[in-house]
Amino acid sequence: MSLEHLDTPALLLSRPVLERNCARMAARAEALGVKLRPHLKTAKSGEVARIATHGQFGGITVSTLAEAAYFLGEGFTDMTYAVGMVPQKLAKIAALQASGARMTLLTDNPAGVPALSAAAQSMSGNPGFTLLIEIDSGGRRGGLPPVDDAVVALGRAIHDAPGLALGGVLVHAGHSYGCTTVAAIQQIAEEERAAAVAAAEALRGAGLPCPVVSVGSTPTAVHARHLTGVTEMRPGVYTLGDLMQVDLGSHGTDGLAVAVLATVIGHNRAAGRILIDAGGLALSKDLSAANRQGEVGYGLLAAPDGAGGFAPSDEGYYVAEVHQEHGLIAAPAGRDLPYDAFPLGRRVLVLPNHVCMTAAAHPGYHVLGPDQAPEAFWPRCTGW
Amino acid sequence: MSLEHLDTPALLLSRPVLERNCARMAARAEALGVKLRPHLKTAKSGEVARIATHGQFGGITVSTLAEAAYFLGEGFTDMTYAVGMVPQKLAKIAALQASGARMTLLTDNPAGVPALSAAAQSMSGNPGFTLLIEIDSGGRRGGLPPVDDAVVALGRAIHDAPGLALGGVLVHAGHSYGCTTVAAIQQIAEEERAAAVAAAEALRGAGLPCPVVSVGSTPTAVHARHLTGVTEMRPGVYTLGDLMQVDLGSHGTDGLAVAVLATVIGHNRAAGRILIDAGGLALSKDLSAANRQGEVGYGLLAAPDGAGGFAPSDEGYYVAEVHQEHGLIAAPAGRDLPYDAFPLGRRVLVLPNHVCMTAAAHPGYHVLGPDQAPEAFWPRCTGW
User: Fold this and answer.
1) For residue B326, which residues of chain A lie inside 8 Å, CB to CB?
2) What is this structure's pTM?
3) Model ipTM value
4) Domain A3-10+251-379: top CATH class
5) Residues 6 or more apart in contact with residue A194 via CB below 8 angstroms
6) CATH class given for the domain over B39-235
């Protein structure tokens, strides 16, 4: 079995790189003195989750109820569902808990507390729901400002509500993705830490419990100077790696565990393009790294790096355009495309900009061992 | 059963709008005097395919081998696989043909002909492969220039190759999506038609067969002045409709058959955003219509239009940012977001920019009848 025998487009996952990425983040968590609760929204795979939690306390983070049900089936019981909770989703949460899951939920909105409490009380035999308060350290997505009296008010409302328990606070500094220097990421990591700790201290100062102080994104997890006062971190993209994370300095190109295998399906010499069968569905239309680096497009061509991973091609060929099932490879300015080196049927590898999005349309991973031969297929959880 | 009972995010499909869209395109094909071979890469649904082919000759277009296998299982046998063929994919094509499919394939590359012929001959009991020659009328994706001697040379190579049959020519004027006026689309439609007919006449003039002269994209199908010399057209997006097609004038807002149902999961008053549980996966990161129209973002909020469809909200609220599972709704410049009108748990509808991409991550359609109540779930084909 070799890459030549796989149908394309196909999602490839280097097991040696995955294992190294996970070992590095585990060491990082140990050095920072926090628990590692990996976010599995990136990988959506039980096999990856087992590697990412190896030697850890076993908790994971999920972004959908479909992931929660899937990972419960894979044997994971301690799960933080890190998206704002609404009462309509509690019946499914309760069913997961009845099947053995211990779910930690998220809110930033006092208006939802009465409904969450009522739902918790109406469920027979339900142990209630544990909620974290989401804090916004500057990402301007979900969360309350950390120094706001509203944090204590929400904490007290949760703590006092029948059927609900206050579990702590959670911050996600997603705006770390906008940084262009390590120093800027370090600053955002410190703001993320400080916001979480300030909110936790405000709650404790008001006599409320705050056992969990949770932060995390891959860039801040990698670059934080310290995490004093934090109890856990929740990075996710580091498991698989992508061009955006290389650009952010979260890992080097040796951290790129995923590539899309595609086949050359045509040449358009008049347009200066080589066509492959990986387009907008197989690569996604995410342009994150391209918006930072120039000639990256929808992904860079890659080659085996000789160590079980994938390295960007020295020549800088990239997927300049995508249609649904067509990708169009271009050469960087000043270079010509060597059409004869890419004959019809030749296999190529494409490194994704943003692996969470690229992996989404694929049913699973063709897993490669150290010799870069396929050794397994690991399915992915899909849908919601 | 109502929309309030669906888990979110969910893909909604208005059956009345779908049926009207399909009836309109069927009438258009009849008026133009061509056969309608709808491209099912958009809908990826047997139920939609049955409506789109109702009263037609039954042929369809597909973009992946997974679609070909799926639609064969749904009873469709006459399929054009409109992506450049490579020898590695012939074994699956042969298996489909052995199971009753009549596949028409695509090439623009003489270098592939010997390998395709050898593969055809090596398969026991195989009826051979029928190939169309792809022509580029200006889209600069796949295809040979229409007036090139290479068209006749490739036609002859296919015609003379054991195991292969020359089926005709195919053009896709995808660059019609770049037009900003109907006049420009009409011009591109005429160039698409003329390129196909010129290539067909060149083949016939050389004594080669060219029974199929195939063109098509939704904008050119809607706006072509005439299709003299063309035998079939292959539009696809018209079935479901999207904001891009509204902007192109392919249909009005009454042609929008698909919306994403989402739930309000938070407010960020400091950032001026309402959060919903439909993000980059549920909406896609396609910005096509937004790149043309301004404040569209990743989709416009919508409301039931009273006729079984969806209409953009009068206030112009739109999904300004997406994260994987979060969408952030903004108000157009000069307007405020009415947070109280979007309480936690409220359901909202989002109209997609590019429905082919938006539908991709969803397992299927929640189908709504004329009263906008869910009446069925139609699964979608996924993967490759």
Assistant:
1) 83, 141-142
2) 0.97
3) 0.97
4) mainly beta
5) A137, A146
6) alpha beta
